[in-house]
Every structure is written in structure tokens, then in C-alpha cells.
Amino acid sequence: MSRTVTCSRYKKDLPGLDKPPLPGPAGEKIFNEVSKQAWEEWQALQTMLINEKHLSLIEPEARKYLSEQRALFFNNESVDHVEGYVPGDGG
Question: Is 5 helix (H, G, I), strand (E, B) or coil?
Fold first, then answer.
């Protein structure tokens, strides 16, 4: 049986993650407050940001930027998007 969390992004009870996705307090917070659906959506956005903005995860500034964007995303606040990208526009 899957666990349920009150998702910080969707403000309703949804299935949660099976385990913390990151080590430490940030991972525990996500595990306890973010739904599996919201995490999967963040993963897709994060991948797009890394690729389109040519971020190197070796750089502390890039990791800090993604961490800030992740917090905004999970709090349902405005996040950066890739210029020219239209969701659902398969080309």
C-alpha cells in the first residue's frame, strides 16, 4: 500500500515517494511534503533546465540555482522556464 502525503505543490493528499529522493534534511522534507506526481514533474523540469541552460552540476552556483528553483516549484511559485518552450507542443 502506498503512503499518502499532503503535497505542498497541489495542496491535497496524494501518493508519496517510496523513499527520500535526496540525502539529508532536504530529502526528508521532500519525502514528507511532496507527492510522487510533483516529484516526477520537477524531475522533468529540472532536466530541461539543466540541458537548455547548459548547467554543470559540478558548479556550486548551478546546484544552488536548481535548489532554489525546486523550492519555488514545490511551493507552487513561479519558476524559470526554457525560452520558447510551450508545454505539450510536441513539434
Answer: strand
